[in-house]
Design a protein that fits this description.
38% of the residues lie in helices and 14% in strands. The protein has 174 residues and is of the alpha/beta class. Strands 1-2-3-4-5-6 form a six-stranded parallel sheet. Helix 4 links the parallel strand 2 and strand 3.
Length: 174
Amino acid sequence: TWGQLSRVDAGGRHSRAYAGEPIPSLEAIATFVRGNGFALNIEIKPTPGTERHTGRIVAQEVARLWAGDALPPLLSSFKVEALEGAREGAPRLPRALLLDHFWDGWLERAEDLGCVAVVMAYAMMDAAVLARLHGAGLRGIVYTVNDPAEVKRQRELGTDGLVTDAVDRFSPAR
């Protein structure tokens, strides 16, 4: 239950300075992100067997929390079924297929799901892949880029976006 989850110490495993920090609710994250004008990618990570249901519920909650917002979160998942559920729950929200390797039909599947982007491990992105994505009308986004040299390479390549853990060094404003 949320009551149990809200008592979990989410910060103590990082360092003593963060001990006692609770898990934020999606509502708290929405308030923070909307209040600061930030873009957000919400990765849907369902429990096996609940992919479609989880995608639908997440999308419905995101649609409720970001109602009327010009910049709703991007909903992404490695699980096709979760993206199908997200499409059912809130068809107007943007979706992205996550990839950690290429599999037969990945691009066609992203198109069938009505995705706006494909998000992949940065080492997978090259000019040919980006050209295929752009040719299909999709954006190419890479994860998890924390190295300045890789940021430079991705910018030179023309990659549409990147996911980073180093938001203090690679903020959208920079």
